[in-house]
Structures are given as structure tokens and as C-alpha cells.
Amino acid sequence: MHILGISCYYHDSSACLIKDGIIVAAAEEERFTRKKHDTSFPINAINFCLKEAGITSDRIDWVAFYEKPLLKFERLLNQHIEMFPRSFPMFYQAMPNWLSEKLRISSTIKKKLKYKKPVFYTEHHMSHAASSFLVSPFKEAAILTVDGIGEWDSTTLGIGKENDIKIIKRLHFPHSLGLLYSTLTAFLGFSVNNSEYKVMGLAPYGEPTYYDEFKKIIDIKDDGSYKLNMDYFVFHYKSTMPSKKMMELLGPMRKKEDPVTKRHKDIAASLQKITEEAIFKMLNHLHEITGTDNLCMAGGVALNSVANGKITKNTPFKKVFINPAAGDAGGSMGAALYAYNTILGNSRKQVFESPYLGPGYSNEYIQAFLEKNNIVHSKFKNDEELIKKTAQLIHDNNVIGWYQGRMEWGPRALGARSILSNACNPNMKEILNTKVKHREHFRPFAPVITEEDVHEWFEIDKDEEPYMLFVYPVKEDKRKLIPSVTHVDGSGRLQTINNKQNSRYYGVIKEFEKLSGIPILINTSFNIRGEPIVCSPYEAYKCMMGTGIDYLVMGDFLIKRQDNQQHIWDSESLATD
Amino acid sequence: MGLWSDLKEFFHPITSKFEWFGKQVQKVVNCILLLIVYFVGVAMTAIPAKLTGNKFLNLKPENKKSHWIEQESKTQSKEDYYRMF
Ligand SMILES: [Fe+2]
Predict the structure, then answer these.
(1) What is the architecture, at CATH level 2, of domain A172-322?
(2) What are the sequence ranges of the domains in chain A?
(3) Which domain holds residue B36?
(4) Which chain A residue's Cα is nearest to B62?
């Protein structure tokens, strides 16, 4: 039985195909259209999923959509009625899209896929919950979903047992922790629904001196339920987010080009503190009402890796699982799984074990691409040579574009479309920023470490963290050894890897350890600034040639930037982020 | 085919101007229609609601012990999931 899950029209549209309860393929639409956070109908992602499964659309048994559009539309109408007449600009902006696209999803699916059966519509937060629980290693778990907004819900507490999920308690729009975080992201001069992680990265540089001000903005009860003071917000009737009153409370908004000052850092620190307070209180209450030590989380706020890393210390939960695509992209997977397991009543068939669910390209394809474009390259004789040569290049402080196998599911590069470099070099952060990333100076780079060594280097309470969703402190005596991946507060958003998960990736780190004594590399996403992570060999090559990446290890091939001078260009001249 | 594409190319500057003009008209019509819908449809509900104190969003601070809405999800039949609401 083939079930296609679809999420689209809000942010990060995606598709996921499951066959008899097993995930065959999943990908975000942005990777194909090259439009970051693309919200459009994910026809390219769907076509990829079908191709990967070796079927055409007439073999799809069911289609599941990740939310209930009419419920969302009802909430929107309520907003316009409540905020009449101030809501007209938003009404004017949003309505054509709703009428021409969002409310016509059923006919779009039927037309584009030639699908004749009814579509399953699952609630937005149920899709989030399902994306995590139904592929978790737990038979029973408490479930917390927190995001910007679904239909009406912004936060839910639930419980999953076998193949069923019950939502027990919820909070409704406009009271949303995700929208609070996004509002402050806008306030601090960063782009909403895109740069929330920058605010999280900025927080450790500040002190939470605005905590008391934040207590006026959000009322958090002991059971974790919360309510925003809407005097400080305008997102319920405007496309902007903070109100004038928020500026009176926290000072003027930062413009994009303004320098980041101590005040901005302190605001970020205070926001992170209040967010963590709300999350931990909710989780303590969730544990109280469910009585299980297992936790699943989903929704955009579940990508707050700093808070995630503190869960077991601040709550009674002992084990936590989060789908790597915790945001809305994960909704397609959740909807498909919910349809198979819960609506159709089938037992669960799979625990999430590999994030490599996207498109992959064969060596034959890559070779044909290189030859057709007269790209100077060499071929590795075997895995051993590939691993040794790559480790040596990294040890010599080269920046490597690492393009191997199928693309990752979710927003993080996890060793399929990564940029790898030397974590021991104290200048590597600057080198990476000058050559490739051009990031804000305060943003850290992330480490990847061999699984067996993680306890030696990090203060971590579990044996693996394969999806970069948790931040843990680097052991104090190790911090000076890996300066490029140690954040200002001594933490790192690590990924662990073992041989089974990705043998070449693991092999390179092991080999690097032989050269440097350190089983850690810098792993950052393989993309041009402002663009999605590379998907095809062409995009990988283009990214290397447009940035300062020194070598590209693509499949069995090695390509050196300097050998292909004719294709060099400057990606920074076009970067938009 | 050749003649047709030649003609298309010849008239391209005119057709593109028509296209642009069409889009502007569409924008104006859209705006008028949406204004009518908003100030008739939305206003017809909003004004009496304001007069009678009916609320469509929960915006005001409340002195409650908890803000949780205890609304448990119900087991639904397969057909219930066909609905967009
Ligand atoms: Fe969401």
C-alpha cells in the first residue's frame, strides 16, 4: 500500500511516500526549486518520491494532507472579524491566495496527480505528533508539539500508545510560543520563519537582563500553559509582528544592517530563558499527566536545540525522540504515517533510523555530468583511498564539499550534503566564514563526532545524537582542542555518527583522528548563502565554484576548485540572505 | 507554424502591453471585490459582534489558574478524515 503525505502552502512544503508503513522517500520542495522555504505545491518532491519508489501516480493508494484547510480558514476569518477594520490590509493580501490555492488543495491534488479517491486531512498538530511518535523507538510516549500556528492550535500535549495518538490539552491562537520567538526574531532584525536559530545562537553572548520585561509579555503558569499579552503584538492583524508597546518596553527594533549590540544579545538571552522556562514547565506537567518517561516532540519550537539539550536535566523525562524535520516539512511524513497507522489501523512497521531519504545520484550520473561539462576530476580507486585522501585534505586545512549518497531529510546537513573542515584549527571559523559561509560572527559551527567517542568529549546523557537536534556542553578540558566548534558558552550542537549510519563519513572522521588525535570535524550545510542545501551534482559543483570550497568529494570523484578556473564565479555578489 | 511565430513576435510588444494592462485591471477589480466582501461580509458580522460584546479571538488577559484548553481528540472514523474541517 502506497501512501503519499503532502505539506504545503505555509512554510517548507514537502512530500513523503510510505510503502506498507515503511518510509521510501521524503524531501522538501525547496531543494528542487532552489527557493528557500518554498511553500508551493510540492510537485517536484512528489515526482521524486514516486520515482524513488518506482511507481507512477496511479499506484498511490491514499493521499494524506498535513492539516485541515477549512479549520485554518475559519481561524483566519475570526481574526479578520475580531480585528475589523484594522485587518483589511492583511485580508487583501491573504485572501486571493486562499481562494485560488489553499482552499482548492483537493482539486489541485486530484488534477496534478490524477488521483480520484478522497484525501485524508489530519490536523496540523496531529501531523506533527505523528511525525515524531509513529517512527519513535517508543511503544508509549508523551508528546509535546509547539510551533508558530497550525489551524487553531499552537501547542498540544498528547500521548501515543502503539499506533494511536491522543491530544489531551491544547493552547489556541494567538497564544503561541513559536510566534513569540518569531516576533522577537523580527524585533532583532532577522528574517521570520528563517533566522530563529540565529537568535538562539546569539543568546549565549548576552545576559537575561530583560527577563522581567518578558514576564509582562507572556504569562506562564506552573503547569506550563501560557498566554501572550497581545498589547505587545500585531501579528493577528498585520504582516509585521511586534507592536509599538513592545518597542517602549524593549527599546527600538534593530534594523537588518544595524550592528548587534549588548542590548540585542541580552534580549536574545532573555527570550531563550523564558522559552526554556515555558517548555520545561509544560514538560513537567506533561509527565505528570501521562506518567511515561519517554518523550516525543515536534513543531518548529522542537528545533530549539539549546532547550532540547537541557530536557533530561530539567524534567523527569529520560528518553527523547524528535524527527529531524521537526518543522512543517515533517508534516507530510506525519500525515502519511498517521493515515497508515491510525486511520487505517495498521501496526507500526518502522523506527526512524536514517535521515538519508532524499534524492541520490549514481557514480555513472556524476561521471557523465563531469565529462559533459569538461570538469577536471580524478576517481578514487576505492573507499580506503577516498577516506584517506579526504581526511588528509581536511587535516591540511582545506574546506571540503562532501556530496555522498541520498540527501538528508530535514533542515540539517548530516553527512550527505555537508561542508567538512578541521575543527582543531582555531582560525577555521574565520576561514569558513571568509571562504564560504559569510555568517554573522556570533554564529557557531557544529561538530560531528564518532559515536564511540562522544562521552569523552561532551557532557551528554545518552549514547548517540545523530540528527543535530540537541546542544550539549563540551567537556571543559577539551574546549581548547576544538575551538572552532565550541560556542561562547562552551557548548556544541553535535552530531554523532557510526559506521552503520554512514560508513564513508564515519571513516573520514576516524582517519582524521589518526592524523590529529581528534575524532571531530566541523560539519556545516553545503549551500550558497541564502540558498537551500545543494541537491544535484550540478548544484554541488556550482556551489564549490561560487564559494571558496577547495575540493569537492562527490561520489567516487575528487574535484579541485583550482583545476577548473573557467567555472569560477562569485556567489556573494548574488547572495540575498 | 513559422508564420504564426513570426506574427506572434511582431505583435509581442503590443500583446505584452495588453498583458500588463490586464494585470492592472485585475488588481483593481480584485481590490474592489475584496473591499466589498470585507466591508459587507466581515463588517456585517464584526459590527453586531462588537455591539453585543461577542469575541472571535481570545485576546484579553485572564486571571486563571491554567490556560490549557482541555479538549481531547476523539477517535474518528475513516470518513471523518475526508473533511477539510
Ligand atoms: Fe507547524
Answers:
(1) 2-Layer Sandwich (3.30)
(2) 2-135+324-343, 172-322, 363-560
(3) 1-58
(4) A227
* A2-135+324-343 shares its CATH topology with A172-322: yes
CA–CA gap between residue A457 and residue A463 (Å, rounded)? 12
Global pTM reads: 0.94
* Neighboring chain B residues of A225 at a CB cutoff of 8 Å: 66-68
- The alpha-helical segments, DSSP class H, found in A438-480 are 454-457
CATH of span A2-135+324-343 = 3.30.420.40
3-state secondary structure of A201: helix
C-alpha cell at A45: 518532491
Alpha-carbon distance B38 to B32, whole Å? 10
| Segment B4-41, tens digit of pLDDT | 888 888 888 888 888 888 888 888 888 888 888 888 88
A158 min Cα distance to partner chain B (Å): 9
In this predicted model, what pLDDT tens digit does every residue of A482-531 receive, in sequence order?
Answer: 999 999 999 999 999 999 999 999 999 999 999 999 999 999 999 988 89
Look at chain B and report how many structural domains it folds into.
1
pLDDT of residue B27: 81
Torsion angle in degrees (nearest 10) through CA of A410, A413, A416, A418: 160
> Nearest CA to CA, how far is A488 from chain B (Å)?
36
Suggest the residue from A3, A82, A107 to mutate for an interface test with chain B (most B CBs closer than 10 A): A82
Chain B residues with a Cβ under 8 Å from any Cβ in chain A: 30-31, 34-35, 37-39, 42-43, 45-47, 49-50, 55-62, 64-73, 78, 81-85
